[in-house]
Specification:
With 137 residues, this protein is mainly α. 77% of the residues lie in helices and 0% in strands. It is elongated.
Length: 137
């Protein structure tokens, strides 16, 4: 209920540092989810397009390494993108109780390309290839 009140009122009652941590964790989880969706697409592509080599290409160790690298990359990117909010929490707030994020134009464009355009392109290309292989069989 407290979370709902925070959303309805538009104020953040947990302080500037918790606001910065919340934003970084929120961004981190979204970025990692996108990266894992790309990994799932690659897995389906290998399973359908190269089924005989799938057990040798996709091992449990490789999967763990890839998931770890996705999370590591997401942590690195989210901390680098939002580091100003950690260094000076509440710097961009215009009033008490405000929790917002400010990134510059270049970082926003990089974020758009890295976490939207590239993953959507990869996922679409991989699934189109899987579809073509499935239709041809």
């Amino acid at each position: 209920m407290c979370f709902r009140i925070i959303l309805l009122e538009g104020c953040w009652f947990l302080g500037d540092l918790m606001c910065a941590l919340y934003l970084i964790i929120d961004y981190l989880i979204a970025a990692a989810s996108v990266a894992v969706m790309v990994l799932i697409s690659v897995d389906r592509y290998v399973a359908i397009c190269d089924p005989l080599r799938y057990p040798t290409k996709v091992t449990q160790k490789r999967v763990k390494i890839c998931v770890f690298l996705c999370w590591l990359f997401s942590v690195t990117v989210s901390v680098l993108l939002l580091k100003d909010n950690l260094v000076e929490p509440g710097k961009h707030n215009s009033c008490i109780g405000e929790c917002l994020i400010v990134i510059n134009y270049i970082e926003g464009v990089n974020d758009l390309i890295l976490y939207f355009i590239v993953p959507v392109t990869l996922i679409t290309t991989l699934y189109m290839t899987v579809f073509m292989v499935a239709v041809s069989q």
